[in-house]
Amino acid sequence: MKHWIEAARLRTLPLSVSGIIVGSIYALSNPTETINTPTEVFSWKIFGFALLTTLGLQVLSNFANDYGDGVKGTDNADRVGPQRAIQSGVITPQAMKKAIIITSLLTLLSAIILIYFAFGKDNFGYSILFLLLGIAAIFAAIKYTVGNSAYGYRGFGDVFVFIFFGLVSTLGVNFLYAKEVDPLLILPAISIGLLSVGVLNLNNMRDQESDKKAGKNTIVVQIGAANAKVYHYTLIVTAMLLVVIFAILSDYNFDQYLFILAYIPLTKHLITVYKNHDPKQLDPELKKLALSTFLLSILLTVCMISLISDIIVNLFLGGR
């Protein structure tokens, strides 16, 4: 059990649910024209199964990454980060393959239940669309490193992380509540997507040399260490700016800029990356950036709600 928990990489889980939290609380704090109160738009069932589905996708991605890099030999003695399960031999490739299949089925089941709670027997078109999105997300989680056509080995990992853990996660879960897309929410969705890509880029910066030897052509391998740093700064700074623009366009009051507190660890992270000359020292920054993104999502959702106590009371006393 200890080895399976390690293979699930728990430190990546808070990052994966950041978009779910922002998209859900945005729906709670911004009822649509046809829905008058927060309790009419927000559903604990949707929120719970959205979290469960996203966590399933993240664990599936971690298992598949361990399996794909393990059987290809990418995870070897040259790798800078901690040893993976297959690399160290504590879990066999066959056992990991079974775990991938089981996790895929459980995640798909969770997605189907989520879709049912969101759309019921109505909106059949939306149900089919989100079912296809769920299948695509499962496929993307597996194909990052698994198979001869693994897109992570061709530098497309950043694109898929941005789409599924940024746009789809934030905008998708919000649509499950509101049944419409709010253009303003695109800004924090992009921000969370960029920060998620930042975590992947940091991982690839750490593993640049071993990835290069193994033929894993990540963006970092393709553009080099120096340009990878510039790319990293661009991702993080752009994400921070977009959230500020979102707050301005949302006409936030002064006390609703509490989310800026999350910029302190993000700024310290950028300084650390700027000064870094040893890829091994970047490993602790993965956890710091992931948790900073999670902190930003929590603080931002608090700022979205102007009457927090009233809404919480409504949810627990009259919510579904």
UniProtKB/TrEMBL annotation:
Q: Which GO terms describe its molecular function?
A: 1,4-dihydroxy-2-naphthoate polyprenyltransferase activity
- Report the PANTHER family cross-referenced here: 1,4-DIHYDROXY-2-NAPHTHOATE OCTAPRENYLTRANSFERASE, UBIA PRENYLTRANSFERASE DOMAIN-CONTAINING PROTEIN 1
- Chain segments annotated as transmembrane: 12-29, 41-60, 99-119, 125-146, 158-178, 184-203, 230-250, 294-317
* Cellular compartments annotated: Cell membrane; Membrane
What Gene Ontology terms for biological process does this UniProt record contain? Answer: menaquinone biosynthetic process; vitamin K biosynthetic process
The record's catalysed reaction(s) read: an all-trans-polyprenyl diphosphate + 1,4-dihydroxy-2-naphthoate + H(+) = a 2-demethylmenaquinol + CO2 + diphosphate
**UniProt family annotation:** Belongs to the MenA family. Type 1 subfamily.
Keywords noted in UniProt: Cell membrane, Membrane, Menaquinone biosynthesis, Transferase, Transmembrane, Transmembrane helix
Pfam families cross-referenced by the UniProt entry:
UbiA (PF01040)
Q: Which domain of life is it from?
A: Bacteria
Instruction: Name its pathway.
Output: Quinol/quinone metabolism; menaquinone biosynthesis; menaquinol from 1,4-dihydroxy-2-naphthoate: step 1/2
What this protein is reported to do is described as: Conversion of 1,4-dihydroxy-2-naphthoate (DHNA) to demethylmenaquinone (DMK).
- The protein depicted here goes by the name 1,4-dihydroxy-2-naphthoate octaprenyltransferase
InterPro entries the record matches: MenA (IPR004657), UbiA_prenyltransferase (IPR000537), UbiA_sf (IPR044878), UBIAD1 (IPR026046)
